[in-house]
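Feature request disguised as a bug: please show the residue count (303) next to DDE superfamily endonuclease in the output. Example input:
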Amino acid sequence: MVDFIVNAIKKLEVDKRLHSISIKERVILTMMKLKQNSSYAMLGCLFGINSNLCRSYILAFLPLIASVVRPMIYFPTTEEIKNNMPKCFEKFEDVRIIIDCTEIHIQKPKCLCCSFEKFEDVRIIIDCTEIHIQKPKCLCCRICFYSHYKGCETVKFMVGCSPGGIITFVSEPYGGRLSDKFIFEESDLILALERDKDAIMVDKGFLIDDVCSSFGIKLIRPPFIKNKNQLSVEEAALNAQIAAARVHIERLNQRIKIFQVLGSKLQWSLVQYINSIFVIACGITNLSAPILNDERFLSNLNL
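Example output, currently without the count:
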């Protein structure tokens, strides 16, 4: 994988200056920062360079590596999804995407203000995830990034995966204060789905019934208790089936957070690079071992 990234960057990079370390070493240096979140001083010692040069190499290579792995986040066709449908989606075969939002905890910035600007029809499962950042000193930044759900400052992403457990969609980054519904509407993800054919699977936080209805997209979401004391037998069974199917997105979020730069509080100096960092993490996750074994797919059960 490293050699593939290195060869691709050699075709992209136009910088012909002499450098203290090779392109391959700079790729490994950047990936070590993402995976272990070690200090620039420590990484500099390992590669025989000073911390300032180490930092400049990492910041320069983040967008380069992101551009190489971005094609790994591929939005499959309906036919491809149906051919790779796990058996836990047997009752949800119209689901095309599962979405989730993720938030990233970031470090406190020094800026005065910031502008971070039965389910066979299921095609995607979506969710939002948050990444912890350092707490801003200015009031404007705190308002933009504060997440009431997490109780701290975060960057928020919406992630979509296929029923087969592949990340197929990553939104732009947003401040933690924004709702899941707002991010979903801003993403225009629904325009990639087929009217009256596809379904989206979400968690209870996605109040997007009106949006999906207007586009003819079926919404699959765990039932609410509302004014009842408990769910009915049918609702409880549906809730269990959806939970078993949605576990894919949770496992993918866990794999993304294996990259310690995302799993711990993100330094404010890296917030402007968060889009590249997150794309790299998602692309590498798609290239790693599948989250489902072959025997878990409906196509293999029918052989």
